[in-house]
């Protein structure tokens, strides 16, 4: 990989099908998904060096399935690089690592029924792996992919659109500017997206909390080995925050704790102060600590007013942002990429009628806005649930927000900075004083710990998100919802009920060919659209698919399913029908991101008429989302 130079113009001759601005996780995954369909892309990254700071570390099952669809070996490499499951056994709340344990949550591992359900729900497992470790793995894949041209040290200066494409003006760090033509452009360039700014799109934001992320190295094994886990909540009068093991390296840690940027910006925090906070979280000042970096992060719920403007789309943090709780940010960006990739596959590789092209792009914006709102509301629900532990400990979760508002008072600007820092340090110390009871050996201490323990008993829902992950269903967009969708699980956030109700993720079923590791989800992710029919019905649907291709320009894959030698997916008809909730001669249409578009439980009398009616319905104007949202978690920031 080389940065552009005056003698080596990074411009790609002619028009590239897709230009992607931003080579983070979302942008890289999109480029690799497009390459799998034979679509060339230009991937532009402003930075020349990888960011080594630990960041998002929760990879959901659904995200791992996307990586598996790129290459099973990619998903396997990520799994092998991540910590062993036994190291992720507990989420612990304590006064400090060396102090008093207040309670534990066991997300996985100790419930055989849940483990069996997890194993039966997907070909993949969730992972715990920081982006700074995952990024180099993805970068190597990008560099090895002939369909992807990566240039670094370049930034977007201008973006113009026409009916048939986009013109990008890019500038290298040496000052050289050049233009590039692209059929479509995707902004995957993060929270401060240049693409979004050039499009003059407003962003709706709900501020949550400013924190300092203190990255350090220390051998903490003597404290963590009795209750190994990726996350330790620390509650004591000197520090409230989380200690996170982001990688398989036992000495690599991040302490995240709330800050008041107007009083003491995280980036200006003295090293002595950072190390003192780390020692307070460990509970032992004798532990050697190597401070790596202190980085600020303002957690907020963000959503751009639209993720599609003409031939330009936004994905990842450029489109929406979430807080750390729930781990939705990284995974939402990957699902953005998956939702867009199959659409671009149809648009670039097919000869679609303009109405169909418009429907594909418009439905992308509808679906991702709906998803952002759903996951933002879920973030708020999980935050409220997590705050119950703080309340039980005697803290006011809104107290820090009140201090933040006070810290921005214009009157404080008239006071000496030293006085202001001491004032707020005193206020914070007073607010955290009730936490001293948690380590007490008296009756008050025991009572306080019991209250906290009861609150911790409710926290499993914060960390077990199988239902939210695999059970999330598209309500509006490129799906034909049924009048009466399947009922949700009683605990829909933690429990997953597989269904082929349109909008849902196709259920997972292994092929009976034991020599091949092939899931129904692998099968449908191999093409933009896939029609699943039993082997006895396969031939009967071929003329209808050929007519669809002639009339609409839409190519739909239709692999044979059955026990015949020629069937790429081996399954007994009864097993296949039961898993997909249809008769043995029923049919299911699925998108390349695994979402069910339409199904017929019974045999279709005329496949040609059935497909015509399906695509006529999909082209109808998108209706308002059927999902009942009682509140909007976003505020508009002008």
Explain this structure to me?
With 638 residues, the chain is of the alpha/beta class. 36% of the residues lie in helices and 21% in strands. The chain is built from 19 helices and 24 strands. Strands 4, 5, 11, 12, 13, 14, 15, 18 and 24 form a 9-stranded mixed beta sheet that branches. Strands 1, 2, 7, 8, 9, 10, 16 and 17 form an 8-stranded mixed beta sheet that branches. Strand 4 and strand 5 form a beta hairpin. It is globular and about 80 Å long. The N terminus and C terminus are likely disordered.
Q: Any key phrases for this structure?
A:
19 helices; disordered C terminus; 9-stranded mixed beta sheet; disordered N terminus; 24 strands; 638 residues
**Count of helical regions:** 19
How much strand content do the residues show?
A: 15-25%
Largest sheet: 9 strands, mixed
Structural class of the secondary structure composition? alpha/beta
Mean pLDDT metric = 90
Give me the Rg, rounded. Answer: 26 Å
In terms of per-residue confidence, which ranges show pLDDT below 50 for 5 or more consecutive residues? Answer: 1-9, 622-631, 634-638
**Alpha-carbon distance between the two ends:** 39 Å
């Amino acid at each position: 990989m080389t940065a552009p130079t005056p003698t080596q113009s990074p411009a790609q001759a002619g028009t590239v099908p897709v230009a992607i601005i931003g080579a983070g996780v979302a942008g890289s995954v999109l480029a690799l998904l497009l390459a799998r369909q034979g679509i060339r892309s230009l991937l532009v990254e402003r930075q020349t060096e990888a960011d080594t700071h630990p960041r998002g570390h929760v990879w959901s099952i659904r995200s791992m399935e996307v990586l598996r669809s790129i290459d099973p070996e990619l998903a396997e490499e990520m799994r092998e690089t991540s910590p062993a499951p036994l190291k992720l056994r507990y989420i612990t709340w304590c006064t400090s690592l060396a102090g008093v344990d207040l309670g534990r949550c066991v997300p996985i591992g100790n419930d055989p029924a849940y483990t069996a359900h997890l194993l039966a729900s997907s070909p993949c497992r969730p992972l715990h792996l920081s982006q700074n470790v995952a990024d180099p793995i993805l970068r190597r894949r990008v560099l090895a992919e002939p369909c992807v041209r990566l240039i670094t040290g370049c930034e977007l200066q201008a973006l113009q659109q026409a009916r048939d494409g986009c013109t990008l003006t890019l500038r290298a760090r040496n000052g050289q500017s050049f233009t590039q033509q692209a059929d479509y452009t995707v902004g995957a360039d993060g929270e401060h997206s240049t693409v979004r700014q050039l499009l003059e799109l407003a962003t709706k934001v709900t501020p949550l909390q400013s924190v300092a992320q203190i990255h350090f190295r220390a051998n903490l094994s003597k404290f963590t080995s009795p209750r190994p886990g990726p996350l330790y909540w620390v509650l004591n009068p000197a520090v409230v925050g989380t200690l996170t093991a982001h990688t398989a390296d036992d000495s690599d840690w991040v302490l995240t704790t709330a800050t008041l940027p107007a009083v003491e910006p995280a980036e200006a925090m003295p090293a002595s102060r950072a190390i003192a906070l780390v020692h307070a979280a460990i509970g032992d000042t004798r532990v050697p600590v190597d401070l790596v970096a202190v980085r600020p992060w303002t957690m907020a719920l963000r959503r751009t007013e639209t993720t599609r403007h003409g031939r330009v789309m936004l994905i990842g943090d450029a489109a929406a942002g979430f807080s750390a709780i729930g781990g939705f940010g990284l995974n939402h960006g990957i699902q953005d990429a998956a939702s867009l990739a199959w659409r671009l596959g149809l648009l670039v590789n097919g000869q679609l009628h303009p109405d169909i092209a418009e429907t594909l792009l418009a439905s992308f914006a509808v679906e991702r806005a709906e998803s952002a709102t759903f996951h933002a509301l879920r973030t708020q629900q999980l935050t409220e649930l997590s705050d119950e532990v703080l309340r039980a400990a005697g803290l006011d979760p809104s107290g820090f927000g009140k201090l933040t508002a006070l810290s921005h008072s214009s009157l404080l600007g008239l006071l000496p900075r030293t006085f202001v820092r001491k004032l707020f340090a005193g206020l914070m110390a007073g607010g955290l004083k009730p936490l001293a009871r948690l380590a007490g050996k008296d009756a008050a201490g025991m009572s306080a710990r019991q209250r906290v323990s009861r609150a911790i008993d409710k926290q499993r829902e914060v960390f077990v998100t199988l239902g939210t992950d695999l059970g999330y269903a598209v309500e509006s967009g490129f799906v034909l919802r049924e009048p009466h969708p399947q009922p949700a699980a009683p605990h829909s956030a933690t429990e997953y009920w597989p269904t082929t109700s349109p909008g849902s993720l196709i259920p997972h079923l292994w092929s009976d060919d034991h020599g091949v590791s092939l899931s129904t989800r692998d099968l449908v992710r191999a093409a933009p659209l896939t029609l699943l029919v039993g082997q006895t019905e396969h031939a009967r649907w071929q003329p209808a698919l050929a007519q669809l291709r002639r009339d609409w320009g839409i190519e739909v894959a239709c692999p044979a399913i059955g026990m015949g030698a020629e069937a790429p997916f081996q399954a007994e008809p009864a097993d296949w029908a039961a898993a997909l909730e249809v008769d043995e001669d029923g049919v299911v249409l699925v998108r390349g991101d695994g979402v069910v578009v339409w199904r017929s439980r019974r045999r279709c009398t005329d496949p040609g008429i059935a497909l015509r009616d399906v695509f006529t319905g999909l082209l109808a104007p998108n209706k308002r989302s059927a999902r009942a949202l009682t509140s909007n978690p976003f505020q508009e920031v002008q």
